[in-house]
Design brief:
The protein is an all-beta fold. The protein contains no helices and 6 strands.
């Protein structure tokens, strides 16, 4: 059962997760105005809150971790 309020659209965008002085290159695979699914290079720990910057346009979004499965994580966008 779909629990999202808005339908996500498939994208393929390079982005960077950053915070705590470190950054990690990743790929956004789908998104809506409220959140996104992000593919990490490997299965790894990600802080519960972090910033996500899209490489193409340098837009920064504050994110809250919601779910994970292998090297894929789901996030909700928060207000900056």
């Amino acid at each position: 059962m779909e629990r999202r309020k808005l339908e996500r659209i498939d994208v393929d965008e390079v982005a960077y997760i950053f915070g705590d002085g470190a950054s990690l290159r990743c790929r956004v695979v789908n998104m809506s105005d409220q959140g996104a699914a992000i593919e990490l290079p490997t299965k790894q720990y990600v802080n519960s809150t972090f910033k996500l910057m899209f490489e193409k346009d340098r837009v920064v979004r504050a994110c809250r971790w919601v779910w994970s499965s292998d090297n894929l994580i789901g996030v909700a966008f928060e207000d900056l």
